[in-house]
């Protein structure tokens, strides 16, 4: 698999998304979708379709390590992680 390289504008955007959203491990998938993980009150959320001010959908995990593992496994927005306990549709942050 070819390594996915980012230009400086994309890297800057990912840093901004991370700071504003509070998510960490923010990265861009092969299809351009931005993903990251964030801590909720009782679970860890894997966000898909992150932008500066919203997200498309999220998967909630009891185990933060599993959320991170599944984040690394994603290649496109169509991939669905395994082991989640709840899923939420598009919502404004």
Descriptive notes:
26% of the residues lie in helices and 30% in strands. The protein has 93 residues and is α+β, with helices and mostly antiparallel strands. It has one domain. Strand 1 (24-28) and strand 2 (34-39) form a beta hairpin. The longest helix is centred in the N-terminal third of the chain and has 14 residues, at 8-21. The termini are far apart.
In brief, what are we looking at here?
This protein is an alpha+beta fold and 93 residues long. Helices cover 26% and strands 30% of the residues.
Structural class by SSE content? alpha+beta
Nearest-integer average pLDDT: 88
Helicity level: 25-40%
Number of strands: 7
**Helix and strand run:** HEEEEEHEE
Q: What would you report as the Rg, rounded to the nearest angstrom?
A: 12 Å
How many structural units, i.e. domains? Answer: 1
Termini gap:
34 Å
Keywords:
93 residues, alpha+beta, five-stranded antiparallel beta sheet, globular
Topology, element by element:
Elements: H1 8-21, E1 24-28, E2 34-39, E3 44-48, E4 54-55, E5 57-61, H2 64-73, E6 86-88, E7 91-92
